[in-house]
Amino acid sequence: MKRASTIILLCMSCLTFINGIYADALHPELDVCYKLMNEGKFEEARERINQFRRSNPANPLALFYFAQLEDDTALALSLYKDVELRAAHPVDSEPDSSLAARAVFARAEIIFSIGNLSGARNLCERIITTYPTSDSFSNAYYKLGIICLALDSPREALTNFRMCTEIVSDPSGRLLASVGIMECYVKLKDWNNVLRAAREVLEENDEESSVTPRVLEIIARAWQELGNEENAALYNDRLLKNYPNSFQAYTIREKGKQLATDLGYSFERSDSAIDSANTKSTVLYSIEDSNDSQPEEQSQSIAPTSTFSIQASAFKERMNAYKMFMNLKQAGYDKARVQMKTVRDEHFYIVLVGSFRTREEAEKVIPGVIKVTGEKANVVFID
């Protein structure tokens, strides 16, 4: 599969993406191909798309799916460019600005993943100016915020994240944009606004999850910078008590009260799946429903007695892991969680689903997980 599943993930993991949008317009054969891709049957999907394109070579949606399955980065970029042209300027049908915008965004995601920030920025800005009514409009603003943070332009990033919160309808998307706003104020060292933004994130995040340790850490740092050591200690203690295995708690224990540098917006190394067999797993945070007043019960949910789980994917950026979790949670996978795995002193964020006593039980759940994520999933053994 090499890069095929990664491309599918890049195209499906943002705030909103193609998920039945074209159900009414799909040719039946393309509908089958789409379902095969969701089930992780990439080679079968590739064969059927190739057959369809022999008789429908100009169909832009078929070409879009074909691009998602392409292993070669340069060729995939070229295919997406062709998709935009065909969708925006069709010969014998109405323009499909939504598909055209998705093709542009797919190019932006790929270019960003290989470190070309200016190129990704230009493509996102083109979506905003050329396809303002498309479903990718809010995605483009969010991605621009991340790009601007990576370029050390927090004020510009702040504008983009704010715009995203105003136009995005998806709760998980709004939460991620709110986290972006908080991180911008951290970059600006505007500690009063950091506190305000962090509290807004906690209000959006009505069930504590993967962002909570980071928010608690930032609140503690803000109080410390504002000279209120008592409040800073309170939030540090809360973090250590309720999230003892988090990366933030690790930082506090190892480096005192220094703010962790992992903001989840690194662009120097692109996301990539890793081989779980060659990594040492340490729980980063459990994304179960939790309660601050019941840390012991939370600890029990973090360490199930079962020995198998499903690895949905792995990321170097924490927020991408969180996005996948939100998709799984909304699809009914309540026992999804995220762990940190360390490989040669590098931290990876692993999305896991479920706890199973046998490998056979876990394998029965894999097709459903693949359908939600678009990413190849594996059964892993948990020590």
Write the topology of this structure.
Blueprint: H1 4-12, H2 28-38, H3 42-55, H4 60-68, H5 73-88, H6 97-113, H7 117-130, H8 137-150, H9 154-167, H10 171-188, H11 191-204, H12 212-225, H13 229-242, H14 247-255, E1 280-285, H15 295-302, E2 308-315, H16 318-330, E3 336-343, E4 346-356, H17 359-373, E5 378-381
Antiparallel strand pairs: 1-3, 2-4, 2-5, 3-4
Question: CATH top level of the largest domain?
Answer: Mainly Alpha
Oligomeric status of the shown chains?
single chain
Characterize the overall form.
globular
Instruction: Give average pLDDT, whole number.
Output: 77
Helical content stands at 55-70%
Q: Quick one: CATH superfamily of the largest domain?
A: Tetratricopeptide repeat domain
What is the fold-level CATH name, i.e. the topology of the largest domain? Serine Threonine Protein Phosphatase 5, Tetratricopeptide repeat
Overall description:
The protein is an alpha+beta fold. The chain has three domains: 4-150, Serine Threonine Protein Phosphatase 5, Tetratricopeptide repeat (Alpha Horseshoe), CATH 1.25.40; 189-255, Serine Threonine Protein Phosphatase 5, Tetratricopeptide repeat (Alpha Horseshoe), CATH 1.25.40; 276-381, 2-Layer Sandwich (Alpha-Beta Plaits), CATH 3.30.70.1070. Helix content is 58%, strand content 10%. It contains 17 helices and five strands. It has helices at residues 4-12, 28-38, 42-55, 60-68, 73-88, 97-113, 117-130, 137-150, 154-167, 171-188, 191-204, 212-225, 229-242, 247-255, 295-302, 318-330, 359-373; strands at residues 280-285, 308-315, 336-343, 346-356, 378-381. The chain has a five-stranded antiparallel sheet. β3 and β4 form a beta hairpin. The radius of gyration is 21 Å and the shape is globular. The two termini are 28 Å apart. Residues 1-25 and 260-304 have low confidence and may be disordered.
